Amino acid sequence: MRSSHSRRYISSRVLLYGSAIVLALWTLVPLYLVALAAFSTKQATFQWPKPLLPTDFSTETMEFFVNTRGVLGSVGNSVIVALLTIVASLVIGAPGGYALARFRFRGKDTVSLGLLISKMFPTAILSIPLAVAFIQLDLYDTIWGVALIHTAMALPFVVIITSGIFVGVPRDLEEAAQTLGCNRVQAFLRVVMPLALPGLAAAAIFTFVISWNEVFAATILTLRNRTLPAQVLSSLNDSPLYYRYAGGFFMIVPALIFIFLIRKYLLNLWGGVSK
Amino acid sequence: MRTKLESALPYSLLAPTLIFVTLLIVVPIFQAFLLAFQAPDGSFTLEYFQKMANDTSFRDSLKFTFLLLLFIVPAQAVLALVMALLIHTRFRGHTIFLYIFAIPLGISDLAAGIAWLSIFTERGYLNSILSQLGILETPFLFLSYQNLPAVFGTIVVAESWRATAIVMTILLAGLQVIPRDYFEAADVFGANTLKRTLYVVLPLLRPSLQAALIIRTIFAFQTFSVVLVLAGRVIPVLAGESYTWYVTNRNPNIAAAYAVLVLIFTVAATWFYLKFLQTSTAEAGYD
Fold it and tell me: Are A107 and A51 found together in one domain?
């Protein structure tokens, strides 16, 4: 009886770890392979059959990519746009998140629903009219224009995520600070902010990821001042395979780091059922 | 006085967000409709929609957008459900696996397409493996217009690979608010893991599942650069046509018509899920 029970336990563990490992490989193998392709020689792209181990490791392909005209500039643009997006969406959105977390007011449900809906709008329906408008406003082909639309895309996420973070900061602490002589602003800055900071950092990182990865609007809204995805996409048809592999790998690296940094907050990003 | 100020506070905190959303989301959507339905003289016109419908790629883009959705969304739901249920058992080391499963969350469809391009291209890794195993002698052209079902399959694989992570995080968040008592009760009544999953977990997970399906369906209508990387314009999709009409053909009106069409499908799909799965967004409450 006992031994059959433990055998069942062992076989269920094997099944559990077995499926987890298979699914992990499914996720990791494509990342390994594109990294392998990005760190091979240019000739290796056309070699057949290809080795599956890094036997001819080389930085030639990556160097070619980084030194291609426009690439470094586009990386710079991507970083600046993402930073502008972080600052703008936190400055604009975090107070809104705080309001949703701390106050009961008329129209609150409508606001929440509106934010939820604005997460869903197709990028195309925003980018095409904005491209037309930006030409008239002299914002076309500028990093400011791209940062504006990225902020619009990130804002609903930031408000919803930050409101989740502020809900997690006990209201009692804030009230205690106020009874001890802080005014509302001081209580917020000295008590709420320090406690909310890790969550806000996670929201900032997620905003970076949204902006860094955004392809459609960035390509529509720029011509020369490309972001990295826009640069890679617009040169897709006339770039060699190894250029694309290097570009793909280059875009993936931040994801590996940032998802690791915000791993604790992953479940808040797309939002689970909150109680 | 004090209370008046207090009651105005949430509105003033939300004001910047509402103004920004109005200027950069509400107004552009309004303008998109103008671009799509307004003739140069200001009158209402269906000319752009007619031109769109008469375009040679229109029917194909419609067909492939829906076909992709039909394959990708269920594939993601199943894969993500397995991942979420595995992680939820909290086995030793589950946090590492959660991180690995979540990595694609930070990867764009463009980069995901490129990763799978290195696998599916003519002299790519899949053909290399198949040849080393002795299954193939010459490379199989997965991405050639001559093998349309294969091209389609590569897009389904790449997009399922990327976006399963989003569905998984939503489902996992949903699993975590199911009280442990339900699992224990099922155990007490002698349910095995499969029965417990089917009869206890899945019904309770419905709001999250619904939220995940809505989000993924909506984004499936926007599938674009992964298709461009793997198939070029061999497989046209609605968002890709909108992009091409704007960038290549310099016609914002027809591009806007495609965008409006995507929006209409988005709204229709959301309505369908809410009606069909019969829970309100408030219940789903994915905020």
Answer: no
Q: Cα(B260)–Cα(B147) distance, rounded to whole angstroms? A: 31
Query: Could A123 and B222 be called an inter-chain contact, meaning their C-beta atoms sit closer than 8 Å?
Result: yes
Query: Which residue, of A60, A92, A109, is where some domain finishes?
Result: A60
Judged by average pLDDT, the poorest of A106-115, B57-66, B87-96, B271-280 is B271-280
Judged by CB atoms within 8 Å, which residues 84-113 of B form the interface with A?
86, 89, 91, 94-95, 97-113
Which among A96-110, B175-189, B270-284 has the top mean pLDDT?
A96-110
Q: Is A267 on the interface with B (CB under 8 A)?
A: yes
pLDDT tens digits, residue range B238-286? 999 999 999 999 999 999 999 999 999 999 998 888 787 665 444 444 4
Which CATH number belongs to the domain containing residue A141 in this structure?
Answer: 1.10.3720.10
Under an 8 A CB cutoff, do A17 and B166 touch? no
Per CB-CB distance under 8 Å, the chain B contacts of A111 are 14, 18
Q: What is the ipTM of this complex?
A: 0.91
Are A55 and A107 part of one and the same domain? no
Choose the closest CB to B215 out of A24, A128, A270: A270
The total domain count for chain A is: 2
**Confidence at residue A271, expressed as pLDDT on a 0 to 100 scale:** 54
Interface contact A205, partner B, CB < 8 A: no
CA distance B105 to B134: 35
Distant-in-sequence, close-in-space partners of B229: CB < 8 Å, separation ≥ 6: A236, A244, B110, B113, B114, B117
Q: Which of B7, B25, B218 to mutate to test the interface with A (most CBs of A within 10 A)?
A: B25
Same domain, A52 and A100: no
C-alpha B181/C-alpha B196 separation (Å) is 12
Q: Do B118 and A120 touch (CB under 8 A)?
A: no
Distance CA(B70)–CA(B52), nearest Å, equals 23
Residue among A52, A91, A219 whose CB faces B125 most closely: A52
Q: Is B121 on the interface with A (CB under 8 A)?
A: yes
B66: Cβ contacts below 8 Å, ≥ 6 apart: none
Distance from CA of B259 to the nearest CA of A (A): 5
Using alpha carbons, select from A218, A216, A246, A88 the residue that is nearest to residue A143: A218
Considering the domain architecture, whether residues A161 and A241 belong to the same structural domain is answered as yes
Mean pLDDT, to the nearest integer, of B122-131? 92
Strand, helix or coil at A98?
helix
Q: Are residues A138 and A180 in the same domain?
A: yes
- Flag the least confident range among A26-30, A71-75, B160-164, B199-203: B199-203
Dig out the tokens for B170 from the structure.
């939503």
Note the CATH number of domain B44-284: 1.10.3720.10
Same domain, A152 and A181: yes
Check CB contact of A237 with chain B, cutoff 8 Å: yes
For A40-95, what is each residue's pLDDT tens digit? 999 888 888 888 898 889 999 999 999 999 999 999 999 999 999 999 999 999 99
